[in-house]
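agent> Task received from the user: take the single chain below, predict its 3D structure, and emit structure tokens. No templates, no multimer pairing.
agent> Plan: (1) validate residues, (2) run structure prediction, (3) serialize to tokens, (4) report one or two observations.
agent> Step 1 OK, no nonstandard residues flagged.
tool_call: predict_structure(input=
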Amino acid sequence: MPFTGADIGGFHGNFDDAENEVGEDKGQMFLARFHQVGAFFPFARNHNIIGHPEGEEFIDSTDQAPYMITNVDYRAGVQAAFKTRYSLLRHYYTQLFLAQRDGTPFFLPAYFFNPEDEKTTDDYESTVMIGRELMVVLPLTEAEEITVYLPSANNWYHLNLATPHVIVGGNDAIFEDTWTDVNILLRSGSVIVTQHIPEGLETTKDLLELPVEMLIFPDSNGQAHGKTYIADGELLVENHQLWNIAYDVRTITFSDELSDSTAPQDINGNEIISKITVVDSE
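)
tool_result: status=success, residues=282
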């Protein structure tokens, strides 16, 4: 069942209530951390109880929506995480489609793709793979740095910094937690599609009508592969496409598993790729 996720913030009780006694600021920090991790759940929902029938053994919660976080840095961290999620929404749709078709779990540990590298089991709680392409470094504590091991079979491209860069695999990598950056890495040999999130965007339906950008990170042989699922977001089996994308030394080929289309298009037949970026693998 791939479309799952915990209630972000917890269903009842709060981090800053009398029972937990952590203080309001630290309570907001934990709530922000929960949002930063929960933003990448397949089903991401802030949900809690406020008021309950008399006699129910629940602890009332205060409003824990992101806009209730008054600390500027913590709120920025929540905003950055969800903005990143929506920029990757088509990748999410692709992985959910593959999960329901093939039975592959949505979240996977890094060692699933690197069983020969025994060190990948060391950080199985600190990272998660979304498909074979993306690794998310999870901010699970209040620490300002996160150290994780990156599998040796690949290099990794840090997507979300002001100056994205390649990190060589087979080493421990230290990631700073600046709250405004989300530590997401693209595995070499991968192709993904992303989208720019404009100010004022209100719904995912509006987002799906916007063009996409293709990001290619070749492996040491100059090759990369990926899939992207395109649908109208409403019909289950009509008007949908599953594109296999192959890159080989500056040549890109497309093949659709579900239709006879010749290039990625939206449901109205319009080409949707607005930009292609190839990352230097060195």
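agent> Step 4: summary for the user.
Residues 7-87 form one domain.
agent> Done.
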